[in-house]
Amino acid sequence: MLHKETIEIIKSTVPVLEIHGTEITSVFYTRLFDNHPELLNIFNHANQRQGRQQTALANAVYAAAAHIDRLEEIVPVVKQIGEKHRALGILPEHYPIVGTTLLAAMKEVLGDAATPEILNAWADAYQVIADAFISVEAEMYEKAARVPGGWSGFRRFVINRKVKESPLITSLYLVPEDGGEIASYEPGQYITLRVKPEGDSYSHLRHYSLSTAPGKPYYRITVKREDGVNGEGAGVVSTWLHRQAEEGTVVEVSAPAGSFTLNSDSELPLVLISGGVGLTPLVSMLETALTKQPSRPVVYIHAAKCGSQHAMRDHIEQLTVQHPQLRSYVIYESPEQEDQCHKTGYIDLELLQETTDPGSDFYFCGPVPFMRAVYSHLKAMGVPADRAHYEFFGPAGTIEQ
User: Fold this and answer.
1) Residue 243: CB partners within 8 Å, gap ≥ 6?
2) Residue 291 and residue 151: Cα distance in Å, rounded?
3) 28 among annotated binding-site residues
4) CB 256 within 8 A of CB 190
5) Which of 130, 146, 162 is the last residue in one of the domains?
6) 307: annotated binding-site residue?
7) Which SUPFAM superfamilies does the annotation name (predicted)?
């Protein structure tokens, strides 16, 4: 338990964190990798360059400070971050390194304003927060290892098959090299791949949503090749999976994780809304709902740039024909001459009002601007926040602008 005086000091720093949070976390990551370059084998380098990781950490620090006297309110966030930490292999011994570096970054950015009193209070608070993460993650590690087919750490999988879904999107079917059983998962969860492309100094870890319903003898991920602009900002792992990895290539995989999962106990109508490669977790949810809840009405809405970039189009059309409880809609931003779609442009409020019941459970995933627009439309329809479920690919962002 934190002393009352410590809590008061932490809460007094909230306005400062709002202003300087991202600057502090930027200094933090620079110091962290300068002093512990081995951690570059864990962190996503692209997210560092784009500033997404710094912003996500700043938001997490701010939330912890604002709720320091009622940390139980951020347990869902702790669990969500804990899922990613377990998938990445974050261990208890990493937390003291992070704590020491974070305090040093605060001191560097805030200067004399970071008094010994403030830094001591933050040291105490950080230990309480770290203990909460370590406890939650220990349970996650244990659970991942003890379920049938489960394992701890990383396990070697073979790319059994590669299927081109569009010019930029490919599905990969992964089977365990040891031939053993694989853990099941909740529709919407992801696995984490660890690869080290030839000539690269560090390993790279990436989360990829499982893109089919559980219960199969393989894991399927569906990956968009991120080419960047003129080669800059290209996705190291996605381009490697598309261009270098072949059928028979071995990759390391951590057990399924993630808190963006379908609530199969709900009897409300289900609406799934995806943009681009954001369809991956939603296809898993769709297949599961159609099989396990055959009487549950389902609406699936997908937005893509055009037909040639629309992955799994034939699969969704086939499911729509086979399952009378499913209605599906396609929106193309810039349809090509031969394309057929229900709407040109973007998913808007009018379309959602025409095709969905605001009393439904909504799940959506896609690029950040897409998700912000969908969330705004759902709010305008009166959909409660607890029935609007979404997931950011990469570090958590802010759904409202």
Assistant:
1) 225
2) 27
3) no
4) yes
5) 146
6) no
7) Ferredoxin reductase-like, C-terminal NADP-linked domain (SSF52343), Globin-like (SSF46458), Riboflavin synthase domain-like (SSF63380)
Q: What share of the chain is helix, strand, coil (3-state, %, to 5)?
A: 45, 20, 35
Q: Which two tokens stand for residue 57?
A: 């950490």
Tell me which residue of 295, 301, 284 sits closest to 362, measured CA to CA.
301
Please identify which of the residues 29, 83, 95, 391 carries the catalytic annotation.
95
Q: Is the pLDDT of residue 281 over 70?
A: yes
Amino acid of residue 24:
I
Q: Are 174 and 96 in a shared domain?
A: no
Tens digits of residue pLDDT in 290-300: 999 999 999 99
- 66 plus 136 within the same structural domain: yes
Task: Quickly state the pLDDT bin for 73 (edges 50, 70, 90).
Answer: confident
CATH number of the domain to which 198 belongs: 2.40.30.10
CB 325, CB 294: distance < 8 Å: yes
Backbone angles phi, psi at 324, to 5 degrees: -65, -20
Read off the DSSP letter of residue 201.
S
Catalytic choice (29, 83, 126, 137): 137
Residue among 305, 238, 299, 232 nearest 270 (CA): 299
Cα 115 to chain centroid, rounded? 36
Check the annotation: does 278 bind a ligand: yes
How large is the average pLDDT for residues 380-384? 97
Overall number of domains in the chain = 3
CA–CA gap between residue 27 and residue 25 (Å, rounded)? 5
Confirm whether residue 369 is marked as ligand binding. Answer: no
On whether 393 is known to bind a ligand per the annotation, the reply is yes
Q: Is 279 part of any known ligand binding site?
A: yes
Is 137 considered catalytic here?
Answer: yes
Q: How far apart are CA 119 and CA 99, in angstroms?
A: 11
The residue written with tokens 């992955």 in the block is 311
Residues 35 and 119 in one domain: yes
Distances (CA, A) of 166 to 154, 169, 193, 263, 308: 30, 5, 22, 30, 6
Q: Is 280 annotated as a binding residue?
A: yes
